[in-house]
Amino acid sequence: MDAAQQEATARARELQRNWYGEPLGALFRKLIDDLGLNQARLAAVLGLSAPMLSQLMSGQRAKIGNPAVVQRVQLLQELASQVADGSVSAAEATERMEEIKKSQGGSVLSNTTQITSSSGAPTVKRVVREIQSLLRSVAAAGDIIDAADALAPSHPELAEFLRVYGAGRTADAVAHYQSHQS
């Protein structure tokens, strides 16, 4: 690669950082690692050709031209975070990727949330996900439900906590958390 090509690639990666938060090579590698994909499968889910994905990753191209593809990237990022925090299983992730692949853009709204509030404090959703992640790193959802069932007669509030945070949906856990803050 000559100096002009290196400069063009560096410029493309800087544009990607401004548009997408990080160079697409790094973003796509995270998705590949977090979701257990290869480049061809990622390209298929996103609706890109393999050469186009490669050009975006290497900085030969700066921008994703199709807004539906950008939306699919956002949906995959959210899915990867749900897999990482244990709220979505690998099997569910595979099903969701098929849904994402079929999405046409505009039909599925992205609901990305900021990690911290403007004050810099963790958001409720982030706190809840940390609790869920910790519980799910200790035991599988079925085991947590079994433990909750065993605790329910003598400790119903603790059983509810295990069910909501250990095996429930993040939205339900957020509502539970907020209802118990005074």
Give the arrangement of secondary structure elements.
Blueprint: H1 3-20, H2 24-35, H3 39-46, H4 50-58, H5 67-84, H6 90-102, H7 124-138, H8 141-151, H9 156-167, H10 170-179
Characteristic key phrases:
mainly alpha
Question: Can you describe what's shown?
Answer:
This protein has helices spanning 3-20, 24-35, 39-46, 50-58, 67-84, 90-102, 124-138, 141-151, 156-167, 170-179. The chain is mainly α. α8 packs antiparallel against α9 (156-167). The longest helix has 18 residues, at 3-20. The termini are far apart. Mean pLDDT is 84; it is low at 106-120.
Rg: 20 Å
% residues in beta strands: under 5%
Query: Low-confidence parts lasting 5 or more residues at pLDDT below 50?
Result: 106-120
Q: Which sequence of SSEs, written as H and E, runs from N to C?
A: HHHHHHHHHH
How far the N terminus sits from the C terminus, by CA atoms, comes to: 61 Å
* Largest sheet descriptor: none
The overall pLDDT, averaged over residues, is 84
Question: Percent helix among the residues?
Answer: 55-70%
Q: What is the helix tally? A: 10
Provide a quick synopsis of the model.
This protein has 182 residues and is mostly helical. It has helices at 3-20, 24-35, 39-46, 50-58, 67-84, 90-102, 124-138, 141-151, 156-167, 170-179.
